[in-house]
From TrEMBL:
This is DUF3868 domain-containing protein. It comes from the Bacteria. InterPro entries: DUF3868, OmpA-like_sf, TPR-like_helical_dom_sf. Residues 29-114 form the DUF3868 domain. It holds the Pfam family DUF3868.
Amino acid sequence: MKKILYILVALWGMVVVAEAQIAIDMRKQDIVDGVSVENLKMERNGGYIAIDMLWDLSGLDVDENRAVLLTPWLVNDNDSLALQSVGVYGRQRYYFYVRNGESMLSGKDEKSYKVSKKPDTIEYHNLVPYAEWMNGSVLLLHRSDYGCCNTLLAEQVGMLGRYTEAFFPELVYVRPQGQIEKRDSLEGSAFIDFPVDQTMIYPDYRRNIAELGKIQSSIDSVRNDTDITITSVWLKGYASPEGSYAHNKELAIGRTAALKRYIQQLYRFEGDVISTDYEPEDWAGLRYYVERSNLAHRAEIITLIDGNLEPDAREWKIKRDYPMGYSFLLQNCYPALRHTDYRIAYTIRSYSDVEEIKRIMCERPQKLGLNEFYLAAQEYEPGTDEFTEVFETAVRMFPDDTIANLNAANAAMRRGDLTGAKRYLAKADDSPEAVYARGALAIRQKDYDSARRYLNEAKSLGLEQAGITLEQLEKGRR
C-alpha cells in the first residue's frame, strides 16, 4: 500500500501543473488499459463530496487465473483517500474467493464481477465525508493486476480529474427563541339540525350523528394525546335570517347552550373551559353564498344585504322584491346558515430530548415549535438530506415565520438549491442574518457587486461573520 501511495503522490505532483481539470467533465477518455471514463462529476453537498462517473469496461479482458482491481483515489500532497474498488476476476480467481468464503481483494465493500458477467458500462457513484484537504485534490484511477496468491503483477495510474471548490461562504443560522408555552387550535363548523322552533339536541335527528361527530373527533384528536392540554372549547351558534330577529336570537342562544350541555355531558370539562357566543342571523354567510351564485338579481340582493336596513326589514324586502330568488335561497342556502362554529384551543408540552423531537417530527410535526426543530437540526451535518428536511419541515409548519424562512433558505443554499433559497429569503426579514444570507446567495450566483453591498450592510448592522466573509471574498477575487 505504501508503494501505491508513493506512485499516486508522485503522479499528482507531475500533473498538477500540466492539467487544468474541472469538477464536471463530460468527455470520454481512456484512463488506464481497458477502462475509459465519461460524465465525471465531483460535487460537494454540505459535509460530503459526491463522485459520479460512467465507466466503460467493454475493452477490459482478464485471464482466468488473474484479477484486476480498479480503485479511484483522491490525492492532495500527503493526504489521500481510497474510494470503493471495482474488481474484475478471471474464472479461477473468482471461484477461489467464493469457495473459500474470503473477502475479495479490497474487502467486503468491493463491487465484484466475474469477467464473463461484467457489464460493459458501470455507473460509479460514491459519497465520502468532506475534509478540507480535498479542495484542490486530484482524482486518480489505480489499476492493479493480481495473479495467484494475491501476487501483485502490475500497476497503472491514470488521472480522472480535479476537485476545486468554489468559494462557499459560511452560513449563519438563527436559533429561534424557546417557547414557554406552545398554543394551537382546531376549528370547524357543525350543521346541527333542530326541529322547528326547538333548542333541544336530538343526536339521531337527520344528520346530527355526523355533525356532532365532527366536534367530538376534533376534541378526541387532542384530548387523547398525553402531550396536549385542552384550555378552552369555544362555540358560536348562528341562525338563518327567516323569521323575526328577536326569535332568531333566542334560537341562536338556546341552541348554542344546548350544544354546550351536550359536550359537557360527554367530557366533564372542569370550570369554564367551554364558552359560548352567538350570531342571531348569519348575514355574512348569506352574502358569501349570493356573491358566488347565479341568481338573476344577485347584485340587487347584495346591495340590500350591505344596506342600512334593520335585519327584519332587510329580509322582508328581499322576500317581497325578489320572491323567486328568496325561495331559492330559503331552500338551498338558509339551512347551511344554521350552524355552530367551534374552536378547541390547547397547549403542547415542550420537548428537549432530540430523539423524541426527531420521532415527533416524523409523526406529528405540528406539535413542535421552531426552537425544537432547530435542536433536531444540530444532530445532522449541514447539507445532508436530513439536515435540509428539518428546516423544510419547520417552514411548512410556520410558512410565514421570518426565522423559519431564513434557516430554510440557508439549508437550500447549502445543498445548491438557489431558486428555493431565493424564494425563502423573500419571506425573511431585514435582520443582519437575513441581509447576510442575501449576500451569501449573491456569492453563489456570482453576483459579486450585490454580494459586497449586502455583506457591507450586514457588517454595519453588527454581524461579525459578514466582515470575515467580505475579506474572504476579496481575497478570493484577487
